[in-house]
Write a structure and sequence with these properties.
By secondary structure, this protein is an alpha+beta fold. About 40% of the residues lie in helices and about 40% in strands. The protein contains two helices and four strands. The protein has a four-stranded antiparallel beta sheet with strand order 2-3-1-4, with helices on one face. The radius of gyration is 13 Å and the shape is elongated. About 20% of the residues are buried.
């Protein structure tokens, strides 16, 4: 059993309120959960309008499977037009 964790520090474009930011973050969280069946939470920068930290986690039988899912999730976040990845971290337990 392998636990895979990935975190993204994001710059959110064009947000002028926390409500606008939450819309972008919620959309990303929902798409990640729906497409890859990962657990996702906003883990940092909750009080900033144009910054966010998201963390996704999954449990897989093999490390190769966890790596594949996390890479696909990373590609989805990288393709988000309303946000830019500042930094990302992956970890396998």
């Amino acid at each position: 059993m392998v636990i895979g964790v990935i975190s993204w520090e994001l710059e959110i474009f064009g947000c002028h309120s926390l409500k606008e930011k939450r819309s972008v973050v919620k959309s990303l969280k929902d798409r990640l959960h729906d497409r890859f069946n990962v657990s996702v939470a906003e883990t940092g920068h909750q009080d900033l309008w144009q910054r966010a930290e998201l963390t996704a986690c999954l449990v897989a039988g093999q490390k190769k499977m966890a790596e594949s899912v996390l890479q696909s999730a990373d590609d989805l976040v990288a393709g988000e037009a309303r946000a830019r990845i500042i930094q990302s971290y992956k970890q396998f337990l």
